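We modelled the chain as a single entity of 134 amino acids. Its sequence is:
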Amino acid sequence: MLRFLLNLLWFLLGGFLMGLGWWLAGLVAAITIVGIPWARACFVIGSFSFWPFGYEAVSRRELTGRMDFGTGPLGLIGNVIWFLLAGWWLAIGHLCSAVACFVTIIGIPFGLQHIKLALIALAPIGLQVVPVRR
């Protein structure tokens, strides 16, 4: 129940805008055809950005125990290209939102989620969103 309330507040107080930012980046990437792998990551993390409480992004290598395209050398190259073209813009958006959230004590959990998403924005290729394990 608490997770639902936090996600609802998050969505209404700024998570919606950052999720749309991720989806816009995904749409632009998909239009280029070459950017489809980045688009997929954008849409997954955009959905995560809409409802972040109760989920986390983990490396697929840690999750599955083996390497794939996104967790190997091609994933590194993909993340470098991503960072140069779009990643730092999304990270700055999340950092600005985090600073705005940190103004109040109630906003601290939301600011921490924005920090987490800013780090993900820097290198999203090779990550998978999974429920938090308890």
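As a brief sanity check on the tokenised model: The mean pLDDT is 88. Residues 2-31 form the longest helix (30 residues).
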